[in-house]
Specification:
Layout lengths: L2 H18 L4 E4 L6 H9 L4 E4 L3 H15 L3 E5 L3 H4 L2 H10 L3 E7 L25 E4 L9 H16 L6 E6 L32 H13 L3 E5 L8 H9 L2 E4 L14 H5 L2 H6 L4 E5 L6 H8 L4 E4 L14 E3 L3 H11 L7 H22 L6 H11 L4 E5 L3 H9 L6 E4 L10 H9 L5 E4 L2 H6 L1 H7 L6 E7 L17 H6 L6 H8 L3 E3 L6 H11 L2 E7 L2 H20 L1
Parallel strand pairs: 1-2, 1-3, 3-4, 4-6, 5-6, 7-8, 7-9, 9-10, 10-11, 12-13, 12-14, 14-15, 15-17, 16-17
Length: about 575
């Protein structure tokens, strides 16, 4: 049997073992050196393979698949810079705790460091951003199929156990890479042998008792819920039982009835917060996105963090204690120990202020006919049917959604908030959409253009996704940051692109709609969703006017609270 046959047989054993542990999907980019991996994935009856031209896009697509399903997804590519292109998605997967199995082809040891074509140093290529790295043997040097099955089992357990994350298998192959015409027997598919889902991290009894005691003693408490990958709905019940406030980011999964509707506007009002300071802030998940939320956590009299994934979500180094436990299990256990506290005067003051601020925000926004980016975020989150997934881009969209979204149930909100980059967003959305969930994305024009290759490649490949794009022709977020005072603001930061998004959509073969009246957003999104396919819904936004509108809303809230 030639080298190509041996390589394929070993890769079939590896892939079959991955599949027996729960791997159902893989993303592959074309390449010669990766032929044995690609063939083994493609030919396995239980693995659904998605082919991508661009390795960076492929890895982010896999990230979306894994976020949607919670299952590990494989990413396979050839050697050289192809493998390096996986790095941005690997960083995001590591920091947002997403299980990926990275299968990078490589030159055999004798062709490393000698100037061989398309050879780079792939050993520990992703550094500490992977949970485990293995530089495997050349299949011809280690044709024992049991060894390859063992390697697959170790990889997938490493990806899902504890805090999930990426695992890197570097797979060197010698030529010939293509098997001979003689039939290579496929590995017989095995039934699942090991549970792929990691066990939740149970809170310790003393942690439950201590938190229940603290919440029972303290009436003036606030729960801050940051981004969470786990189901955390019992947090709502926890806040209700304790008589504490709940301020929840959309990506927490608990921006639901019971949470404040204008919480960030209250946190941003220093006059209000200085006179309504809590005794304890209990933070779940990642650190807050907004500056107001970060300042509130950093200035708390006492900050307790519940961190299920070891994210160390304490940039101000202010926490008095960190509990590493599943938020749902901890919330449920504490509720069972807490007597239900009625509404306290302090809680009533917060809720009255919340209703007052929300009323001021909505009345002002609803008086404007032209689209305002804050209203786009509010109206989009409100109009989507139950069961939908809303994927929000970094930069301004995630901040607008955080400030303006009304609490609701039935909507899953996701974003790449591990490293908070804009790269790979389109690919991530298409990966999420590939699982069949009704998917709508909210992103800025630069975020869409940054990953436009994924749109060009993927818009006609069977996914259904609607991209709502507030287009302010550049990075207007810098107009809210200290860079706004620089004379180089436009040239170096806003970077206006001058591109027509209708032409971009046309080039990708994606249907396009223009929304220039605020009230038309919901019908446009409904039309695109009902039609199916990948759509671009552009909402033009004047950058300077958008900045001014944000200031108008903040002023209206301040006036309402002071009155």
């Amino acid at each position: 049997m030639n080298e190509g046959n041996v390589a394929l047989a070993c890769m079939q054993a590896l892939v079959d073992e991955l599949a027996s542990h729960g791997l159902e999907r893989a993303c592959v980019s074309p390449g010669s050196r990766s032929t044995p991996i690609a063939l083994a994935l493609w030919r396995h009856p239980c693995v659904n393979v998605h082919v991508h031209l661009d390795e960076r896009s492929s890895a982010f697509f896999a990230l979306g698949l894994s976020k949607a399903t919670g299952r590990p997804v494989a990413v396979a590519c050839t050697s050289g810079t192809a493998a390096a292109n996986l790095f941005p998605a690997v960083v995001e997967a590591s920091m947002s705790r997403v299980p990926l199995i990275l299968l990078t082809a490589d030159r055999p040891p004798e062709l490393r460091g000698v100037g061989a074509n398309q050879a780079i140093d792939q050993l520990h290529l992703f550094g500490r951003y992977v949970k485990r790295f293995v530089d495997a043997e050349v299949p011809g040097d280690r044709p024992d199929l049991a060894r390859w099955r063992s390697l697959a089992g170790e990889a997938i357990r490493g990806a899902v156990e504890g805090a999930p994350g990426p695992v890197h298998l570097n797979l060197p192959f010698r030529e010939p890479l293509v098997p001979s015409e003689e039939v290579v027997p496929a590995a017989d598919p095995r039934p699942a042998s090991v549970a792929w889902r990691p066990a939740p991290r149970e809170p310790r009894p003393e942690e439950i008792a201590s938190l229940a005691e603290k919440m029972g003693e303290k009436e003036r408490g606030v729960i801050l819920a940051g981004s969470l990958r786990l189901d955390a709905r019992p947090i709502v019940d926890l806040a209700r039982s304790a008589g504490w406030l709940l301020i929840a980011e959309p990506t927490s999964g608990v921006r639901a009835p019971g949470a404040l509707a204008a919480g960030l506007f209250l946190l941003a009002d220093r006059g209000f917060t200085s006179s309504h300071e809590p005794d304890v802030v209990l933070q779940f998940g990642a650190a807050p996105t907004s500056r107001a939320g970060l300042a509130f956590a950093a200035g708390a009299k006492e900050l307790v963090i519940v961190d299920p994934d070891g994210l160390v979500a304490d940039p101000a180094r202010h926490a008095s204690r960190t509990i590493r436990a599943d938020p749902a299990m901890l919330g449920t256990a504490v509720v069972e120990r807490l007597p239900v506290r009625g509404e306290t005067p302090w809680l009533r003051e917060w809720r009255d202020a919340d209703a007052c601020a929300r009323r001021a925000v909505d009345e002002l926004m609803d008086s404007w006919d032209e689209p305002f980016e804050g209203r786009v975020a509010r109206d989009l989150a409100a109009c989507l049917p139950d069961g939908s997934t809303l994927v929000v881009g970094s930069s301004m969209p995630v901040r607008d959604l955080d400030f303006y979204m009304l609490p609701r149930g039935g909507l899953r909100v996701l974003g790449n908030r591990g490293a908070s980059g804009i790269d790979g967003f389109v690919s991530t959305v298409l990966g999420l959409a590939a699982t069949g969930s009704p998917t709508v994305a909210l992103c800025g024009d630069l975020t869409l253009l940054h990953d436009v290759g994924a749109l060009l490649w993927g818009a006609k490949r069977g996914q259904d996704a609607v991209f709502v794009v507030p287009n302010n022709v550049g990075g207007v977020i810098f107009s809210f940051l200290p860079q706004r005072s620089l004379p180089e603001l436009d040239d170096l930061f806003v970077t206006p692109h001058g591109l027509d998004l209708a032409n971009v959509a046309d080039a990708a073969g994606a249907p396009y709609l223009l929304v220039d009246r605020a009230a038309d957003l919901g019908p446009a999104v409904e039309k695109a969703s009902d039609a199916g396919g990948v759509w671009i819904v552009e909402v033009p936004s004047d950058g300077e006017r958008n900045v001014a509108r944000h200031a108008d809303v903040n002023a209206a809230v301040a006036d309402a609270l002071s009155g």
